[in-house]
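Lab channel / #folding
Pinned by the channel admin:
"Please post every new chain as: sequence first, then the structure tokens as a reply. Keep commentary short and put observations after the output so the thread stays searchable."

First post following the new format, from NK:
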Amino acid sequence: LVLRVLYGTALREAELLALRYADLEVGERRLFVRGVKGPRDRYTLIDLETVRLLQEWRGSKGLGAPIFDIKSHMTLDNIVKRMAIKTGIWEKYKAARRSLSPHTFRHAYASHCYQQGMDLNRLGRLMGHSFVQNTLTYAHCPPEMQQQSYERSHPLARSGGAG
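Reply from TO:
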């Protein structure tokens, strides 16, 4: 569930650790994110299945209870590593010679949303960025996507180069 929330919401580590059940707005399928980095609070969206799982996970805990009772960033890193090994994600990253951490899921969220057509300004707002340039460091575009976009957008590519 920790991995799912990290990937499904693009929360920063500190934001995940600060998350309370009162921050989960079930009907709107969103999370209230307290201004852990900077003075501003924000909302981010969350999918229906993750909402359901969080409600199930809650049990009888009160609204003020932390969603994940994780005490430190090191503990969160260890949880992410254990679950990544268990799910097979760890091997995929290791084979690609890439590191994996809680922050990796923030990059994956941005890249996948961008690749599926989410506008960078909206993506940046969900991630808590004030400047679109910050969002660009997260939203990776693979070469195939660049090629498709070029062929769809550039007049010479669309006309086969004639003219």
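NK: The longest helix spans residues 73-87.
TO: also worth noting, The chain has a mean pLDDT of 91.
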